[in-house]
Amino acid sequence: MSKAIVAILCAISVAGCNMSNDGERAVTGAVAGAVVADVLDESVAAGAATGAAAGALCDDVGLCN
User: Fold this and answer.
1) Among 1, 6, 25, 40, which residue is least crowded by beta carbons within 10 Å?
2) What pLDDT is stored for residue 45 in this prediction?
3) Cβ burial, residue 59 (10 Å; 0-12/13-18/19+)
4) What is the pTM of this model?
5) Which domain holds residue 34?
6) CB atoms closer than 10 angstroms to residue 62
């Protein structure tokens, strides 16, 4: 299975999740960021860190209410 298909399946699997706190959103963002970075052949650690930060802060800026 190609990396792109895996990334799409991961995105679909977390899209319907009802995450109620910053920790859950940070973990989900970290996983999504790592998968996207891997698909794009970028630094997985940087992708995970960026995704975690985005996930933790998305509620604060009103993106995931």
Assistant:
1) 1
2) 95
3) middle
4) 0.73
5) 3-57
6) 7
Domain count, the chain: 1
Residue 50 φ/ψ, nearest 5 degrees = -65, -45
* Whether the Cβ atoms of residue 50 and residue 34 lie closer than 8 Å to each other: no
Rounded CA-CA distance 51/45 in Å is 10
Q: How far apart are CA 46 and CA 65, in angstroms?
A: 26
User: What tens digit of pLDDT does each residue of 1-27 get?
Assistant: 577 777 666 666 665 567 778 888 888
**How far is CA 10 from its chain centroid?**
9
Alpha helices in 16-43 (DSSP H): 22-39
* Cβ-contact 52, 27 below 8 angstroms: yes
The answer to whether residues 18 and 39 touch, using CB atoms and an 8 Å cutoff, is no
